[in-house]
Design goal:
26 strands; single chain; 4-stranded antiparallel sheet; mainly beta; globular; Neuraminidase
Length: 289
């Protein structure tokens, strides 16, 4: 069962690292390019998390899925805890192995509830709105959702691990369609949407698979042993055990060394701030584009 995991340190001095050394650091990624190394500290926002698996940031609220305690946390941007929702169970406001979270324009928040075979839906205040149910008339009477993503129209896509399909529901929670995960993909550790394309992180194959909006396979991006990624315009941001790589397509993409031993699990970009989820802590990083 694939239920999200993460990763974490290099050196301090700013310098150009030969491609051979860099290849060791990031498992052969972009081996022909020199990388500018810049040391920078992450700002700690929150600590004491129990097996967190996902985060999402919207306006003034940071949402964190804390799988170890089967709950959803809401924090402000100063890292102060505002509210908790959940606890293990099958009822409303309860979870059994939650995995991922995503939101629309702030009105609806989706949480994949793996062992309860549902995607729960909340408003931005944490009030329960309902669940996405399995489509009637299909062979599988239930589904086992893991990674999910919401597009600009408020439509939600999620991976059903039991059938290895990506299911599509509209803004009102109605089933629309689904497609099978292409055979080139071993596992799906994250799903992101960018310009009507799906980006699927596959840690087993150490890369990112790109699909078109219909689910047809497009191409593969090498990512080494990245534990998380972000697509921000032309820049692909890859999070490693001890560093962050900002690949903007230039001959010298920037590699940022991190002063932490924390595994990096998930990330979210809000304006010019990157929020980074570790296996115990939440950080933020100012991104100078």
């Amino acid at each position: 069962m694939n239920i999200r995991q993460g990763i974490p340190r290099i050196e301090d001095k700013q310098r150009v690292v030969p491609s051979l050394i860099l290849g060791i650091i990031v498992a052969g990624l972009f081996m022909l390019k020199p990388h500018i190394i810049v040391a920078q500290q992450l700002e700690l926002l929150y600590t004491g998390l129990d097996n967190p698996t996902s985060l999402y940031v919207h306006q003034d609220v940071i949402y964190i899925v804390e799988q170890g305690k089967n709950r959803l946390l809401q924090l402000n941007k100063q890292g102060e805890l505002l509210e908790t929702t959940g606890g293990q169970g099958r009822g409303d406001y309860q979870f059994d192995t939650p995995v991922d979270i995503h939101a629309t324009n702030g009105l609806k928040v989706y949480v994949s509830d793996f062992r309860n075979h549902r995607v729960q839906l909340f408003d931005r205040r944490g009030q329960f709105l309902g669940s996405l149910k399995a489509a009637s008339g299909f062979n599988n009477a239930s589904y086992s959702p893991t990674q999910l993503v919401v597009n600009d129209l408020g439509e939600v896509y999620f991976l059903d691990q039991s059938s290895n399909t990506i299911k599509w529901y509209d803004l009102d929670g109605n089933y629309v369609d689904e497609f099978s995960v292409p055979a080139q993909i071993d596992q799906v550790d994250d799903i992101q949407l960018y310009e009507r394309e799906f980006y699927l992180l596959d840690k087993r194959k150490e890369g990112i698979h790109v699909l078109n909006e219909s689910g047809m396979y497009s191409h593969f991006i090498e990512a080494g042993q990245a534990g998380a990624f972000l697509k921000a315009g032309k820049t692909l941001i890859l999070f490693y055990t001890d560093s962050i790589l900002f690949d903007d397509g230039s001959p010298t993409p920037r590699q940022m060394a991190l002063h932490t031993s924390e595994r990096l699990i998930d990330s979210h970009l809000e304006n010019d701030t990157i929020y980074i989820l570790g296996d115990k802590k939440l950080y933020k990083l100012a991104w100078d584009r």
